[in-house]
Amino acid sequence: MKRLQITGLRKSFGSTEVLRGIDLDVPSGALAAVLGPSGCGKTTLLRIIAGFEDADAGQVRIGNRVVATGRQGLPPERRRVAVVPQEGALFPHLTVAANVAFGMPRRQGARRRERVRELLALVGLADLGSRMPAELSGGQQQRVALARALAPDPDVVLLDEPFSALDAGLRASVREDVRDALHSSGATGVLVTHDQEEALSIADVVAVVRAGQVVQAAAPEQLYRAPADLDVATFVGEAVILPADVAGGVATTALGRLPLLRGDQVSDGHGLVAVRPEQVHIVRSGRGGVTAKVLGTTFYGHDASVRLSVCGADGADVPVLCRTQGPLPSEEEVGLVVAGPVSFFAGS
Ligand SMILES: Nc1ncnc2c1ncn2[C@@H]1O[C@H](COP(=O)(O)OP(=O)(O)OP(=O)(O)O)[C@@H](O)[C@H]1O
């Protein structure tokens, strides 16, 4: 089994406490994304798992092996952990095949060549073994880096912002290929990123790190639909935040009366609700819903993001965001209805 269990991991550099009790549990063969703003300690966490850095306290366990506990740990080469760095870092003077074979024992001979072929096929580069790294695109280089990491058959693969150097068009397809290759290999993966779309789109589990702790770890859809707090709600995707008075599991807001997620567990009181823009639907003025005025539209091609304002309880304008197929004329009056339950954060 290749389950990765991290408990109570702490690390300070001088007087700066970077990791303050990180807990993370990644099932065998799953891919976890560690999502957090720049400087929150993501790379430090990976370096500790890999054995490049010692923690001050806590434990790293892979399957039934404790690879680090407190300040003690196995050396990196005995952990069965591989790292894919930010930019492939391939050996420029070796062919693609030789790069992939680099970490494998030479005595394997024909088996080694066969394994390189398998790995290149796994990452979709079956025909490129004889090329030099400089003759590959950035996305192809990252796939070779993954194949090289997988060559010694590691239990855990760590990926440090592996797509950040790729342009937007390429990034989506390369990350899907990397996810599929990782899943096929059976290795457990941990990817660190500050890109929420990347985390949501490829990971089985997303762990949001803030101030050196995991504030929520959940499947992408659960994280998006039921964020643990207001910061997670706004960090993971866009949200319309509205003041709300709650009674009987229903919030009264500037967008009308909205049912709450797990409303039966929410006490009556005042707070804020988070509404996802795609929950807000436009209906023609006079056809129900809350009246809103269009402020402007940003058109993205596949859809558009419309900024509107509705009238709050105190008479002030409340900004609202929704998604539409195309632009709407500014100043137009429309009706808005909200579909589905919303998250509530008491006393915020
Ligand atoms: N060897 C070190 N000595 C001193 N401080 C360090 C060291 N390594 C990291 N830090 C500090 O620890 C903090 C976390 O760094 P880390 O690189 O882990 O963050 P990160 O979340 O990966 O950031 P980014 O997304 O920008 O790469 C930063 O404030 C950094 O300056």
Describe the protein:
This protein has helices spanning 42-50, 96-101, 110-122, 138-150, 168-185, 196-202, 220-225, 230-235; strands at 4-13, 16-26, 31-35, 57-62, 65-69, 72-73, 81-84, 156-160, 188-193, 205-210, 213-218, 240-247, 250-253, 256-259, 269-275, 280-284, 290-299, 304-311, 317-324, 333-338, 343-346. Strands 7-8-9-3-10-11 form a 6-stranded mixed beta sheet, sandwiched between helices. A 5-stranded antiparallel beta sheet has the order 2-1-4-5-6, with helices on one face. Strands 14-13-12-15-21 form a 5-stranded antiparallel beta sheet. Helix 5 (168-185) links the parallel strand 8 and strand 9 (188-193). It has 2 domains: 4-230, Rossmann fold, CATH 3.40.50.300; 238-346, no CATH class. The mean pLDDT is 90. The protein starts with a strand and ends with a strand. The chain has 348 residues and is an alpha+beta fold. The protein is built from 8 helices and 21 strands. The longest helix is centred in the middle third of the chain and has 18 residues, at 168-185. Bound molecules: adenosine-5'-triphosphate (ATP). Adenosine-5'-triphosphate (ATP) is lined by residues 13, 18, 36, 38-44, 194.
